[in-house]
Amino acid sequence: MELATGAMGSLLLKLAELLKEEYKLHKDLRKEVEFLSHELESLHGALNKVAQVPRHQVDEQVWIWAREVRKASYAMEDIIDTFLVSVDGGHDHDHEVAAKMNCLKWFKEKTRNLFNLKKLADHRSIAGKIQDIKKQLQAVALRRSMYKVDDIVAKPAATTSTMEDPRLLDLYRVTKLFGIDEPREELISMLFEGKDGHGVHQEMKIVSIVGYGGLGKTTIAKAVYDKLKVKFQCGAFVPVGQYPDMKKVFMDILIGLDKEKYMNSNMMILDQYQLISEIKEFLQDKRHFIVIDDIWDTPTWELIKCALVDNDLGNVVITTTRKSQVDMGALVYTPKEISYRDSQKLFYTNIFGTEECPEKYKSAGVYDKITEVSEKILKKCNGSPLAIATIASVLAKKPILKWSHAYKNIGFGHDEDDSQVKRTMKILSFSYYDMPLHLRACLLYLSIFPEDDCIPKTMVIWMWIAEGFIHDKEGVGQFELGERYFNELVSRNMIIPVEFTRSGFLNGCRLHDMILHVLRSLSKEENFISILDNEQHTSVGSRRVSIQKLGLDNISTQVVMDKSQVRSVAAFGGLMDALPPLSSFPVLRVLAVVLNSVLKESHYLEGLGSSLHLRYMSLLLTRTRQLPKDIGHLKLLQVLDIGCSGIEELPDSMALLQGLMCLHADR
């Protein structure tokens, strides 16, 4: 299952398995399943096309249509899974079933026994529900034609000439820079290490600045370029972007090298090969400094590299990228977040025009309010210059006494009246929409964890698997595939790696606050995860619920939600008392109760045995004392983590957990 395509991936696999001759489907039911399979396959392709376009570029009717299709796919998968579980009522004690059977093999085994007289009632029930889904999909297909989805959502041939690049305004905005001296000098040292004072008779030096969006890569590159360009005969600073028009990139290089010669010339008649030849000829006998900003993939860099010339004159090339996996064959420089003091200077300068809070505000009695709000903001910005400047630009337009209210409502990008905020959100969302679909769901799922948390790698991979984000791949285990996804998110600078062991293995990650706010915004828009905390704890409309540090004082009533669709429930330092009994979640797949020091008894686990779809359960760092005996009914449970809990003895029914793949407990 993927965020963009709902449960289509796993659903199509299950429908295909049902259609095999060996299962001898009833003629009428077989026709219905065939119809659903063909219709869903077509809709799957359409959803993939919608997913290639950033949200703000998609027609609203098309977006609503796609959401309805995803919702239908979830409902269909829930129906099939519930039916399969009901075949044996969740109480199958056949110990000969392979304990580590993957989901598709398990599905195949169950479907062998679907159609016997004993289960006719279940068959009639699923047939009726399939009819309902069929009618829903027919209506969705009609709207697909009405809205001309296939024409509207084709992936745009985005180029720097037709797509607004929000970094351009930041690049040429006149601002005072803070914390730039140290990284600028470090980068200059890397560029000229091993060279003589003039860089004569030296090979070309290439350095790549790598880091997440908003870290200041472009600013550092521009600062170095501005300081050093006078030492070179010519130079160019060229933005590339996510979907570059390579002819324009090469023309921009030429214009940067010699504006008078190339600005008014008719370069459009030249093709890429001719433009590359023109650049190489121009650079052949000149010492030059070129910055290629914002490269997204290796093929783009390889093409640009064809135009570069190494003439032993000490040429310098700087590139910037958000993706460490872009292979440029260059030295890598990773900027650090700016210090708290420099963050404070940048914040105050963008608001007041001075590096300190003006004296007039100290005497006006609002200094404490300014200090309080600024400290909160700078903590969240975590040294990201782009984030600091963005928030400051919003607060500068508001009365100081309203800063606290404005800060809560900004959400790092929800103030629709501020163009700077919109540009910042675009910068960060570019990286999200550039990812393949399977990574988007995995990344978005990380927003279920609390802010500033260190997220254990093993834990989140098993949760991805339980949710169905990771499908079987021939020759690769699901967990190994999950590790690949995790590492790719690291290499794309979407998550920050933490806790490297002595052996060099990566243990976990954390999210930069800016990235987390983007994910939370996307998650809310997609109804992907509902966060229950001290500010919002009464209503849930998504399939995933995260309780975060919610105490008894904040629980006035149980949370209102559609319990029939919830797949993940996570409580981080919160109380399960806020939720209905587990027995009321018929399709629950993930249960994670972590760092809960309040609960001493295991009453919140009552009815656990009825959660027949449960695949992952963690009671890590809780005071839970015992597991219920009916845990043996959970035939699909793959992972049980009771590390650092109060559980000292396992019930005998644990022997019935035929699908258990991982048990983590204290010695």
Automatic annotation (TrEMBL):
Xref: Pfam families: LRR_14, NB-ARC, Rx_N, WHD_DRP
TM spans (from-to): none
Every Disease resistance R13L4/SHOC-2-like LRR domain range: 565-666
Entry-linked InterPro entries: Apaf_helical, Disease_R_plants, LRR_dom_sf, LRR_R13L4/SHOC2-like, NB-ARC, P-loop_NTPase, RX-like_CC, Rx_N
Keyword Coiled coil: yes
Family membership: Belongs to the disease resistance NB-LRR family.
Entry keyword annotation includes Repeat: yes
GO molecular function (one): ADP binding
Protein name: Uncharacterized protein
CDD domains named among the record's database cross-references: RX-CC_like (cd14798)
Residues covered by the NB-ARC domain: 201-327
Residue ranges of coiled coil: 19-46
UniProt KW keywords: Coiled coil, Leucine-rich repeat, Nucleotide-binding, Plant defense, Repeat
One Gene Ontology term from the biological process aspect of the record: defense response to bacterium
Organism: Aegilops tauschii subsp. strangulata (Goatgrass)
Superkingdom of this protein's organism: Eukaryota
Domain Disease resistance N-terminal span(s) in chain numbering: 7-94
Gene3D superfamilies in alphabetical order: 1.20.5.4130, Helical domain of apoptotic protease-activating factors, P-loop containing nucleotide triphosphate hydrolases, Ribonuclease Inhibitor, Winged helix-like DNA-binding domain superfamily/Winged helix DNA-binding domain
Domain named Disease resistance protein winged helix: residues: 448-516
